[in-house]
Amino acid sequence: MKTLLKSFAVLGALTLPSHAIFGIGGHWAPALGLEVKGDSGSINQNANIRLDEQGTSGLKGFGVKLWIDAFPLVDIQLSGNVQFSTYGANVIVPTGSGDTTVPLEFNLGPLFPKAKPPFGRIFGDIAVLYPFLKFPPMVSLIKLYGGGGLTYGVATEVMNSKFAKSAMDKAVAGGFNPATATPTAVAQVLADDITNAGLKSGMGGFLQLGAQAKPPVIPIAVYLDFKYHFLSFNPDAVSGGLTMELGGALAF
Predict the structure, then answer these.
(1) What DSSP letter does each residue of 102-147 carry, written as one string?
(2) Which residues contact 239 (CB under 8 A, 6 or more apart)?
(3) pTM for this one?
(4) How far apart are CA 98 and CA 59, in angstroms?
(5) Where are the extended beta strands (E) located within 157-241?
(6) What is the pLDDT of residue 158?
(7) 239 closest CA partner among 77, 40, 38
């Protein structure tokens, strides 16, 4: 009799819906295919100073996620991500012996030590998702869902030729003479300007498709989400890209 009761208890536990109504976790969050566009051009015609910005593709990232599955038809997810990378940029300044190329280096704080120009962004998402498939039906080890939501974020500016020309124009208006300045001084003008430029911020939307897996009883889940953001907070020099969120969570 005891063996029979134990068998029913185990069977009952295994047939309970495995997906928890609450979860919190962390994830790897790269931006796949995102492009910081390369750009070259004159930033001061009088002194014939040029910028060569080489761009980059893709961002590294990480983030956190909170979900609530307590509603009848939809799930709610909140997530926050930090993504970052660096790109090459050089200032080309004519000198008596020919052109001198100075690589730009920036120091935007503890997250971005002095190195190549960084591009970084931080954003938060709130999503409303519809779970369109649970497999297998009784136990629901795997759940697929889709939907979308709103995002708010901040991002650093990009040192392209448009930004660099504006920085040089402001310096000239303040008394800086690029024709007599050293190449290092010209590069420092650009570095100082983007350091003081602050962050670009804004709201946008996104579409999301993902999957979540959770075994019965054990309060651990894994998830994989893909998000396409639009009308967002990126500078004009940044385009495209999908954010992938791959992680694990405690689920109750």
Answers:
(1) EE--B--STTS-SBSPEEEEEEEEEEEEEEEEEESTTT--EEEEEE
(2) 34, 35, 37
(3) 0.83
(4) 36
(5) 199-213, 220-230, 238-239
(6) 93
(7) 38
